[in-house]
Please model this.
Amino acid sequence: MNALSRRDMLGMLGMAPLAVGGVARAYGETSAAPGAPAGAPATQTIAGRARRRIQEQHLPNLPLITHEGKRVLFYDDLVRNKNVSMNFFYAKCDEICPLVMANLAKVQRLLGKQVGRDMYMYSFTLKPAEDSVDDLREHRKMLGALPGWTFLTGKPEDIETLRAAIGFKYPDPAIDQDKTQHIGNIRYGNEPLMLWSACPGMAHADWIAETLQWMIHPQVDRVQKS
Amino acid sequence: MYYNVFGEKVSKRRFKQMCAAAKNRRELIAAGVTSRREMFKMGLLTAGGLLIAKHGLSSRAYGQSVTTNNPASGGGTNLSPGTNQNCVPGNQTMSPPTRPFIVPLTVMPTARTVPSLTPTPTLNPNVGAGEVRAAPFQAPGISMSRFPVVPQTLYQFNQRQFSTSQHPDLPKQTIWGFDDGTGPRSPGPTYQAFYGKPQLTRNINSLPSITEVNNTGFGMASVSTHLHNAHNPSESDGNPCDFYTSGHFCDQYYPNVLAGFNSTNQPNGDINESLSTLWYHDHRVDFTSQNTYKGLAGMYCLFNQFDTGNEETGFRLPSFPQFDIPLIFADRTYDPNSGDLVFDLFNLDGILGDKFLVNGTIQPFFQVSPRRYRFRLLDTGPSRFYEFFLTGGVAAGSPTTLPFYLIATDGNLIPAPVQVTSVRIGPAERVEVIIDFTKFAGQTLYLENRLNQINGQGPAAVDSQVAPQNSTTTECSLVLNSNQPAIKAAGTGDLIMQFRVTGPQVADNSVNPASNPSFYQLPSTQAAPRIVRTFKFDRLNGQWSINGQFMDCNTFRFAVQQNSVEQWLLTNLTGDWTHPVHIHLEEHQILTRNRVAPTVATDMGRKDVTQLHPNERVQLFFRFRDWLGKYPMHCHNVVHEDHAMMALWHVVAEGDDVNVP
Model:
């Protein structure tokens, strides 16, 4: 994993910059319920309850392994207090993965130094039994991924839980079990501000990059000239 | 050369896949295996079949045996009559119980005008004052005297966060609404607009700043307010790609002018293009579902010399606002413990709630007098389809279906009233009906939704099931079932609101719809199109698409020629899904559905949303008139819309020739 960002460090010290400072104060992160992750939001306020609900239903604190072989927890280490993009792939996927992953490589370059500082990109393998940590590292290298874009695997059952939790599952179980049809979207979000949506991984890279910028800089106005 | 069922050229490889899937399918049918569930259980999901499914032809590959999966009605105790309490798909939780019919219906007040705006509206966007608008107003450029930059009718709408009760059995909810100066409300105030009276609304984003971290779990406080179905210039349309944050505003110019006023039917436009029921809602790209769910929607009623709002003049429809009532439907889910309004942020398919709101409260009652009423029904989604019935005899245990009159589809009066026993609408569609309560004095009637739907796919067979796996988890298992009708028996559907015919006897001077009055005639669709365009609605690896492409604010997919006729072919390749497709700027008429002329009343009038059912092909007639600029088309299942099932196009002087944009 990357070193703690300035935001993480400030957050832990209770001295976060303005945008995130409110989160720490509003949610009183020290009063987590039993069984909840150490940093889980407290629930005295609507916002706190909402953030907790999102964490409980969609952002499980599952153990995962990075392409560097490092053990991490999904919520605590990857998502909490961060802006993120998340997608699924597998190394031998020759359907849409090459398109989506090449797109993400372009997106990373478009976002530049923000990735790893203001935006964390995560790609999870759909086939943890097939893709070893070495495979992930090789695949990542082949794509020319830069720091801030982490490839992850885990126990097959945990990957399945994660896939359902963050909305990469079809309602039809037959289609859902066919990995060649796997969902090619990119889930993006700003965890502390509870801003979440998704865009197609096959959309134009510059448009994906623009949508990810909304998580980093949500206070942006836009007009489209015709 | 190889062709698919649409007569389109396909590659040899694709053709082989299709043949293999068809062969597999025939073998399975011969073996008596006809549902996807059975195939899955038997491990018969073949590569050929799945390849076809992957390309969006799943239903064709498997035949019509499976409609969809699961109603929210299996198992458990129904805690609240008329609502589905038991299991909500999509990993959502069950809402707490609420007592039905204890809250009176809220009728939104008519929006209040203001004498002036500060700063005064300007032709060009007033960037210095914080205005975010894409272009100068177009209307004053056509006629400054007819469309002055500052028209007489002005509104100032602040979009605000506020606290309100949606039911006394739930805590107050923190939601978003519109404030015309009398306080924020959701649904917002109802506009009472008139043809020939241009108006301007200053839409101010006064929501909490996005970075203030008091988000209630969903919603993006960055807005664009669309006036749905208005024949409006593009800069005032409320485009999803134009949005602004807290502290900023947009002046939106609503000319209230008939289509054709500056083209085919100068100077006043075609009276047969009159609109009556429009609605306004947030349209922020990628976040429309969340922002409208949070409350940013309201009604816009547009009147003219025939549809006057006075039952003693013109068409003599029941008078506004006493007997002409907007009914805005929304389904929602609440946290089972805290009672907070919740939204499933991680859903790609569509979201269903287990509580039904009408005009902002759950299952209200409405006291009516024994006379005729005009109701304007709007389905705000996010993803639910309804088939409304008027049900009597519930208390006596013998539910009966009562007839009523359909007078408008998508807010467009049809040529003459049609007596019906039910009417089906999907997200963003409107219908207007006349219900005559004269014979029911003292009785209690219900507006009942008998349409079964269990997830975002659309209406579902009644015997499909979603069953809770156990009483403590939020997981639901799907039980796929077969070809039953999607309509439930009388009295077993969702009793969404209650009519108590206990109001005083009052005069009724409105027209009797049984006397066969006539309204507007349908505009001719004989003109030859300049171009025929094809739009395939599909799902490519979970990504909602139109013609294999995805929403992108920076790309105009095609250019429509101003004042030209086009035909659009909408094709649904997504198997079991229904998509309510909405096109901005101009209404359309359905020429054919699956190559035959429309057969149901709700397909025969002028439309701005057309339901594209599984595997359908719909042919639409358009005239794109008067205005220039950018507009979108999109699926109005707002979850699909937010996940890129949308295309941006524009109207220009010289159109392009792109047949498959």
Observations:
- The two ends of chain A are 43 Å apart (CA to CA).
- The longest helix of chain A spans residues 97-111.
